[in-house]
Amino acid sequence: MLERLLDGSLMPHGHCLLWRPDLLFLHLTGDSLIAVAYTLIPFALVALVRKREDLIFNWVFVLFAAFILLCGLTHAVGIVNIWHGYYYLAGLLKLITGVVSIATAVVVWRLLPEALAMPSLQSMERRNSELDATREKLEESNRLLEARVAERTKELQQLVATDVLTGVNSRREIMRLLGKELSRSDRYDRPMSIMLVDIDHFKVINDRHGHQTGDWALSRIGAALLAVCRDSDSVGRYGGEEFLILCPETDAPAAAGLAERVRLSIAELHVDSQLAMTCSIGVVAAD
Questions:
Q1: How many other CB atoms sit within 10 Å of the CB of residue 174?
Q2: Which residue in 35, 116, 198, 273 is a FRET match for 191, CA 20 to 30 A apart?
């Protein structure tokens, strides 16, 4: 059988072409180009399979490579057969090519449903668009959530920094501001005064009228202090009926004048016709 395969003594194909140059040129050129192309394509497919191990149809590409390579070999033998008749070899190659071709066709048809189930480029683009739209909605929701969190945080910070009953700064906030203003005054050598306002006999108000009236009186006092003090001043509730006033850029005489205005504004407040409110104020100027 091997001797027959390598027997090239059969009538060459060139006799069928009558050795005409035009026919020889057409068959020789066509078979040569096909043989070269069919030889290069399998190498490209094998390189693809080796580089892309994630492809789920790798072995199908290998079958295609074998099929195309065998087709190229049959065309190469066809070129030789123009001068030498290796028809047994050509027939064997065609038989093997036919078997591999049938196997490839069967495999391709069996894999067709899976291939069709794979997402197309259009569907992937559509899904990407949907994902982009979803991402934009999530980003917008995230921005709204961050804005609400920031707003709520600001409200909570304001709630912590504000005395709910009187509306002035809480003790914690006024002490923080005190440290800040003292540091600024010391660093830049600027005047600053501090006033401590204590409501006189406040226990009498609670004992005679009850704590609810006492709370009402404290709220009135807080409003009066905020009204009489300047925008640059800071008013805070230091204790039960004690209020701390910070006066930056204010020396002792100016602070004493402000203290007098505070005293008069509180004196105008009355719990009832017989009970007016008075206060004691201590003033100190920071050196």
A1: 21
A2: 198
CB 89 within 8 A of CB 10: no
Predicted local confidence at residue 57, as pLDDT? 62
Look at residue 286 and give its three-state secondary structure. strand
Cα 18 to Cα 4: distance, rounded to the nearest angstrom: 25
Q: Are 229 and 281 in contact (CB under 8 A)?
A: no
- Whether 229 and 262 have beta carbons less than 8 Å apart is answered as yes
Q: Is 110 helix (H, G, I), strand (E, B) or coil?
A: helix
φ, ψ of residue 8 in degrees (nearest 5):
-105, 25
What DSSP designation does 198 have? E
Q: Provide the CB-side half-sphere exposure for 131 (13 A, CA).
A: 6
Residue 191: Cβ-neighbour burial (10 angstroms; 0-12, 13-18, 19+): middle
* The pLDDT of residue 67: 83
Q: How far apart are CA 80 and CA 10, in angstroms?
A: 12
Rounded distance, CA 170 to CA 252, Å? 25
Pick the CATH number of 171-286 from 3.10.50.30, 3.60.10.10, 3.40.630.10, 3.30.70.270: 3.30.70.270
Task: Output the six-digit token pair for 3.
Answer: 């001797």
Low-confidence ranges of the chain (pLDDT < 50): none
With both helix axes pointing from N to C terminus, report the angle between 58-80 and 87-117 in degrees, rounded to the nearest 10: 160
DSSP E strand boundaries for 16-151: none
**What is the C-alpha end-to-end distance of the chain, expressed in Å?**
120
